[in-house]
Amino acid sequence: MMTEAPRFRRFTPEVRSAMLVQAGIACLARGGLSAFTIDNIAREAGVSRGLISHHFGGKDGLLTAVHAEAYRGFIDILAPDGGDPSLRDVLDRAFSEALFNRDTLKIWLALWGEISVNPALREEHRRCYDAYLDHVERAIAQHAAHAGCNLDAKALARPVVAVIDGLWLEAQIDPERLSPGKARAAALALLEQALGPI
Fold first, then answer.
1. Labelling 124: which of 65, 132, 146, 187 has CA 20 to 30 A away?
2. What domains does the chain contain, in order, with CATH numbers?
């Protein structure tokens, strides 16, 4: 009796790279940086270890790509289709259920912890963070134009992001004390004191 030979699926380099990035994200979500190993990622993606070096030059290159993909997912929620969200949209989306789960927290804590010691990751973070700031700056400028007030949107974007990020992190860490809804309300109250009704 003849047995059928195993079938191997061929993927384009782009698909294979995306599979490795998703595997890296899954490993970070499961156990942070300690789970982000070549063996774990290769096993998760169902590929050989050598493909990580082939596509990304090693684990650090893959981690940088994982950061870019995680940020892309965040920006896609914040500004769907690359549009300009209003300031209220920014708050609603930053504190939406899509961004609140333990996996997301573990991924970001791992990435943030590595940024200070990984120059390539730090550069990628700056690029992504600038895109985030740009969306918030445009939202503030839009708010100022609608409200007929004179605000320095560029100067205010970073503190607004700091308020959002700080409350988001606190709500992720201890949701029993600060729910996403309460975090959003706190951000809104603080920002309205500085910027007027949003």
1. 187
2. 67-195 (1.10.357.10)
